Amino acid sequence: MQEPTFLILTALATGPKHGYGVTQEVAELSEGTVKLRAGTLYGALDRLVEQELVMVDRQEIVDGRLRRYYRLTDAGAGKLAEQARRLRKHAEAAESRLQARPNVAFGFTATPFGVRP
Fold it and tell me: Which pTM does this prediction carry?
């Protein structure tokens, strides 16, 4: 699952949101590193609706324009939880290996219990 998709599903985990709300939430979640453009967002939302991970919750007209709200389905919540577990497992493996990484410059190895020669 691509990072923008993961963040879109995460944004919808707290309840229905319209497109702009999803965009804002994704920017906040990613600390500004992921900025979704309208084409990218709505393409992803259409794909997620097709996959039944997201559904249209309701529609309303605001200032003469259609505003569509999306919500996470139970299948989407399950997929998000599965992906979060997978990412957590990979992050833990990376952190473990980084702790065991030898400090080549000084000939020392970092361990969870300190540094050893």
Answer: 0.81
